[in-house]
């Protein structure tokens, strides 16, 4: 099957052109080997799901990896702890059996409880089952949850996190998961930003357990070049892979979605067009500029998400506008809540102590938004 560039869902090596994730996976495995509880929180379309899926394959020889996606649990299942416990159990059972058929036997008590006590299964009982499963597993059990912030705005989710934290803290005395990996846009410690609630009881202990994940998930210029070399082996376009990787990195700063999107546009939209009749003509500097023009003119999930975040957080909108139009340097200070939020969403980066827009593509998107839509203009004091 012919491979292609992918910008939706997780990437698979046999289907898609990808950067080499080996070093990234080695770094994360070191944290798993140390038994750490951590979050992989990055902006939308940043390759989190692809990384988790690759990590599950990478760890399977040494660990029993149960990989869940909270988007598979509908919001209605978070209405109370009984409903959530049943939904979580079913998702966990399916994922565990998929990961290792040998796990089926030790899942029987949980299956029995799910089938017989559908209206009564409590979170505490669920965790007692999970503890027993970890106790009897032939390998240390790793829990990975993707899109962990997709249903965060409710008390059941916070109660689940609190129990997960409690069992992890007591792991020397009570069998539990060897390592916990949570992935989403929001870090467990700043999920309270998403909650935006006045209820103080939602802001306590679940937030102070996860360690920082400092791995760089951007694509380096060398990683982009490696992906282009794989493409070149299949298509023989004659492109200068080093120069093309340099151009792509210069405009995207390695933002995974933007890198793959530009490559996809060149491969699928530009090659074979009137001005670029074949792949050889498309994978040139002129072809790259045309791809950049097409990208900036389209409506896609990343750009829509960026605009929505500006409306959701007016202070973020003010800061982006100020960076672009006032000429005033904004110091990068990690404890500033607006700076933290902007970095969380991938809008800015730290450039020698100054907060600057993260890449050229984002700069152009924000410029167009403010200049072409009068209602978006802001009066900055």
Notes on the structure:
The chain is of the alpha/beta class and 381 residues long. The protein is built from 16 helices and six strands. Strand 5 and strand 6 form a beta hairpin. The longest helix is centred in the N-terminal third of the chain and has 19 residues, at 81-99. The N and C termini lie far apart (57 Å). The relative contact order is 0.11.
Structure summary:
The protein contains 16 helices and 6 strands. It has 381 residues and is α/β, with parallel strands linked by helices. Helix 13 packs across helix 14.
Key structural traits:
single chain; two-stranded antiparallel ribbon; 381 residues; alpha/beta; four-stranded parallel beta sheet; 16 helices
Spatial gap, N to C terminus: 57 Å
Major sheet: arrangement of strands: 1-4-3-2
How many distinct beta strands?
A: 6
Gyration radius from CA atoms, angstroms: 23 Å
Question: How would you describe the shape?
Answer: globular
Average pLDDT level: 87
Order of secondary-structure elements = HEHEHHHEHEHHHHHHHHHEEH
Please identify the structural class as seen in this structure.
alpha/beta
Proportion of residues in β-strands: 5-15%
Low-pLDDT segments: 196-207
**Portion of residues in helices?**
40-55%
- Sheet with the most strands, sense and barrel status: 4 strands, parallel
Number of discrete helical segments: 16
């Amino acid at each position: 099957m012919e491979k292609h560039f992918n910008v939706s869902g997780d990437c698979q090596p046999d289907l898609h052109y990808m950067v080499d994730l080996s070093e990234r996976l080695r770094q994360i495995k070191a944290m798993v080997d140390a038994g750490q509880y951590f979050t992989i929180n990055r902006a939308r379309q940043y390759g989190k799901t692809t990384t988790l899926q690759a990590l599950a394959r990478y760890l399977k020889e040494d660990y029993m990896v149960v990989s869940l996606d909270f988007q598979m649990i509908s919001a209605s299942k978070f209405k109370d702890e009984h409903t959530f416990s049943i939904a979580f159990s079913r998702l966990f059972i399916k994922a565990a059996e998929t990961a290792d058929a040998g796990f089926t036997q030790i899942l029987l008590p949980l299956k029995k409880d799910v089938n017989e006590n559908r209206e009564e299964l409590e979170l505490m009982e669920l965790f007692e089952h999970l503890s027993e499963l970890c106790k009897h597993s032939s390998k240390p059990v790793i829990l990975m949850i993707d899109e962990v912030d997709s249903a965060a705005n409710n008390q059941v989710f916070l109660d689940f996190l609190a129990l997960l934290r409690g069992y992890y803290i007591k792991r020397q005395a009570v069998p539990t998961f060897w390592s916990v990996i949570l992935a989403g846009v929001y870090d467990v410690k700043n999920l309270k930003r998403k909650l935006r609630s006045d209820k103080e009881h939602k802001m306590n202990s679940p937030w102070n357990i996860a360690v920082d994940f400092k791995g760089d998930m951007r694509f380096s210029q060398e990683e982009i070049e490696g992906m282009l070399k794989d493409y070149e082996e299949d298509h023989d376009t004659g492109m200068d892979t080093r120069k093309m990787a340099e151009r792509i990195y210069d405009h995207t700063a390695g933002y995974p979605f933007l890198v793959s999107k530009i490559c996809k546009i060149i491969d699928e939209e530009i090659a074979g067009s009137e001005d670029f009749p074949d792949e050889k003509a498309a994978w040139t500097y002129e072809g790259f500029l045309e791809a950049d023009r097409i990208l900036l003119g389209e409506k896609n999930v990343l750009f829509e998400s960026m605009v929505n975040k500006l409306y959701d957080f007016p202070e973020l909108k003010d800061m982006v506008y100020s960076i672009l139009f006032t000429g005033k340097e904004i110091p990068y200070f990690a404890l500033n809540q607006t700076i933290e939020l902007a970095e969380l969403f991938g809008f800015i980066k730290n450039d020698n102590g100054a907060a600057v827009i993260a890449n050229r593509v984002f700069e152009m998107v924000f410029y167009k938004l403010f200049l072409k839509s009068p209602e978006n203009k802001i009066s900055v004091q």
